[in-house]
Task: inverse folding
């Protein structure tokens, strides 16, 4: 079953400061039929230096547990040894998301 995150409803917000190496990402997870997903799901987040992708400058797989309505929140950079400080937020970065075992990252 393919899952997707409703990009129009997703929000990326700073939690603390980028220098602290932590960001909070919130979104809505739904299945291919448009129904909310409430089961624990692993999402791989990647930051890229360009819109066309290339090599990710930061990556982490985070397990989220959406509510019954599909809404979830993930803290990026909180994993030990993988802070966001490794990415240069002094330049534009693009976020890629890959849900569970989907073969590819989502595209707009």
Result:
């Amino acid at each position: 079953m393919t899952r997707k995150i409703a990009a129009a409803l997703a929000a990326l917000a700073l939690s603390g400061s980028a220098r602290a190496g932590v960001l909070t990402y919130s979104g809505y997870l739904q299945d291919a039929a448009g129904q909310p997903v409430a089961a624990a799901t692993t999402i791989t987040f990647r930051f890229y230096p360009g819109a066309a992708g290339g090599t990710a400058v930061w990556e982490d797989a985070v397990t989220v547990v959406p509510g019954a309505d599909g809404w979830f929140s993930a803290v990026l950079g909180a994993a030990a040894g993988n802070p966001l400080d490794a990415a240069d937020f002094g330049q534009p970065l693009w976020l890629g998301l890959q849900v569970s075992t989907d073969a590819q990252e989502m595209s707009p």
